């Protein structure tokens, strides 16, 4: 009998979901709000962590924002394949952002959207974000539901976890400060948005 690690099982799960994963008009509209909160402008660069099938490129397209560079990361090769079908110009890498990640050039923005509940090693997220950003660049963790809304959603679908779906604000703040970020802002009214800026040297 073959046993899989939790990460391998997660990859298989998302690979299986990819073919039927639909970026609906509603999901793209919510992603547009996050892109607007992020503040990205045409010509700037974005690292889209745990990109799925491409709701962020869909939002960028709707908003007529053309990044200078867009790189999508995901642990699921099937999700990235679906993203490339819709956005063949997109640059993609099948990697786990909970492992050390080195990119050859810095980004203006690093975004983790709608996927923070799936990450365990929060410290590595901040380490990788700091490494990936230009000085003065923005790291954002966002979700289309508020903290309470996500808890209620998980209760409705019968999903249970030993940890908070969205990490406690204080834990995120402490990690941000520890890893060289400032200008921390948190919104938790219409959607959840944690944002911080890599300290300029």
From TrEMBL:
Q: Which stretches make up the Methyltransferase type domain?
A: 47-141
User: Cross-referenced SUPFAM superfamilies, in alphabetical order?
Assistant: S-adenosyl-L-methionine-dependent methyltransferases
Write down the InterPro entries for this protein, in alphabetical order.
Answer: Methyltransf_11, SAM-dependent_MTases_sf
**Recorded superkingdom:** Bacteria
Record Pfam families: Methyltransf_11
PANTHER family, alphabetized: TRANS-ACONITATE 2-METHYLTRANSFERASE-RELATED
Q: What is this protein called?
A: Methyltransferase type 11 domain-containing protein
Q: Please report the organism this UniProt entry assigns to the protein.
A: Paenibacillus borealis
């Amino acid at each position: 009998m073959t046993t899989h690690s939790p990460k391998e099982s997660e990859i298989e799960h998302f690979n299986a979901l990819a073919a039927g994963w639909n970026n609906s008009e509603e999901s793209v509209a919510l992603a547009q709000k996050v892109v607007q909160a992020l503040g990205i402008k045409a010509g700037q660069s974005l690292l889209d962590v745990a990109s799925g099938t491409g709701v962020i490129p869909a939002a960028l397209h709707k908003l007529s924002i053309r990044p200078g560079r867009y790189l999508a990361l995901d642990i699921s090769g099937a999700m990235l394949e679906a993203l490339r079908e819709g956005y063949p110009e997109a640059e993609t890498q099948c990697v786990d952002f909970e492992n050390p990640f080195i990119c050859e050039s810095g980004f203006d923005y690093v975004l983790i959207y709608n996927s923070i509940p799936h990450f365990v090693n929060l410290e590595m997220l901040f380490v990788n974000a700091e490494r990936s950003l230009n000085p003065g660049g923005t790291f954002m963790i966002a979700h289309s539901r508020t903290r309470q809304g996500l808890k209620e959603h998980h209760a409705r679908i019968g999903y249970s976890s030993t940890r908070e779906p969205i990490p406690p604000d204080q834990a995120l703040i402490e990690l941000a400060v520890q890893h060289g970020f400032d200008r921390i802002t948190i919104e938790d009214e219409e959607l959840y948005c944690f944002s911080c800026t890599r300290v300029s040297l």
